[in-house]
Amino acid sequence: MSARRLSLAFALSVSALLGACAPVQQHPASVAAAPAEQRAPVTILVSIDGFRPDYLTRGVSPNLNGLAAGGTEASMRPSFPTKTFPNHWAIVTGDRPDRSGIVANNMEDDSRPKDKFTMASDDPYWWNEAEPIWITAEKQGVRTATMFWPGSNVAWGGNKAAEWPYKISGGSRPSDWAQFNEAISPTQRVNGVLDVLRRPADIRPRFVTLYFDEVDTAGHVNGPAAPETTQAVADVDAHIGDLIAGLKALGQPANIVIVSDHGMAAKANDRVLPIDKIADPADYRVVEAGPYASLVANPGREKALEAALFKPRDHMQCWRKGEIPARFHYGTHRRIPPYFCLAETGWVFQNTTPTKPVTGGDHGWDDRAPEMRALFIANGPAFVGGFRPSADFTNVDVYPLLARLLGVTPVASDGNPAVLQGLVKP
Predict the structure, then answer these.
(1) Is 181:175 a contact under the CB 8 Å cutoff?
(2) What is the model's pLDDT at position 392?
(3) What φ, ψ does residue 347 adopt, rounded to 5°?
(4) Residue 210: beta bridge partners?
């Protein structure tokens, strides 16, 4: 039996019991109808991982296009590098990766030589350098809930013990959060958001996040132009429709902010840069490879590695970390390896010559590349319809917008409140 039917059955049984005890039956017409609850708007931040803004032109996203037409839609510049975890963290902290400490999907830190950050890492140590919006809100009395978001499962501000059972002391999380599991279907994710919004007002969140990963997965496996990727766009759009319908059924007004973390570009066999053909493997260790490569020189091999990396080469460029061009806002954090090479969009670094076909798509390239642009849609009672952000709109500017919607004082960040100032009604 569903929760709704169970509640109805319980209510009817109690009513029957009270009716049996009452000496006089009251005519239903004499009972005043209970007034409908007047709900305050909730802010819902939705991430559609890997969603390029031009996917909206494929004719398969009526719900997203409807939200864009009735609100605001823009092509947003991600932070560099255009990877998932650095950009999701940039959106909710307002800090670029070089400042937030989440500088890549895979990281090392000299103070933790036996540890390495992966996308499964929940040790607060890696995350504590930038405060996410849900912590800012909770500190100021605004209840929050996350149906997935990188870092939302972390006890932010806490400490993880160095020995088993590795207990975490201190730290804060959203009032409600879910551990990411790819097997949890999009329908379950939408229902999870709607379920927390069915709660009584005193335990109902005012800020909720929702995350979809299938567009990114389809883009990686098949490439951005593939019909499978278009179908993934259609599928996610249908779930956005379910969210909208569910909110309407609840009578729940919502300020919905829909973003992606980055775009997607195609890769191919004839656009591979084998690192072992660029430099002698005896000279380096690869930390991360793909659209960019980050490397550490083996002891005493710095000059040999630099001589190889800094030769003029087609489709790539390398720098010492402190010499990465300033426009990337990247290169000062201790977790960025000493040498960094960026491939031309569509080209990828691999440790060695590939032994199987290179197909599909990827991201991580120049944040100014058109293929890396990210989605931004805002729709709801707080927003001015038709607003268009300036051309320098970047994803760190979303954080001060969220703080304004929630009525909380933001922490200092890289985000510029003026960029989206005109989006919110006075």
Answers:
(1) no
(2) 84
(3) -95, 150
(4) 46, 147
42-265+366-423: CATH topology is Alkaline Phosphatase, subunit A (3.40.720)
Domain with CATH 3.30.1360.180 in the chain: 269-358
Residue range 25-54: average pLDDT?
76
**Radius of gyration over every alpha carbon of the chain, rounded to an integer in angstroms:** 25
| Cβ–Cβ under 8 Å, residues 331 and 340 | yes
**Would you please indicate which residues are annotated as catalytic (active-site) residues?**
84
Confidence of residue 409 (pLDDT cuts 50, 70, 90): very high
Q: What angle do CA 357, 269, 283 make, to 5 degrees?
A: 100
Q: What is the dihedral of CA 335, 340, 346, 351, to 10 degrees?
A: -90
Please provide the DSSP assignment of 218-243 as one string.
Answer: HHHHH-TTSHHHHHHHHHHHHHHHHH
Beta strands 207-212 and 144-147: pairing type?
Answer: parallel
Handedness of CA 40, 45, 51, 52 (dihedral sign): positive
Global pTM reads: 0.91
CATH label, 269-358, candidates 3.40.50.261, 1.10.760.10, 3.30.1360.180, 3.30.499.10 = 3.30.1360.180
Residue 57 token pair: 């032109």
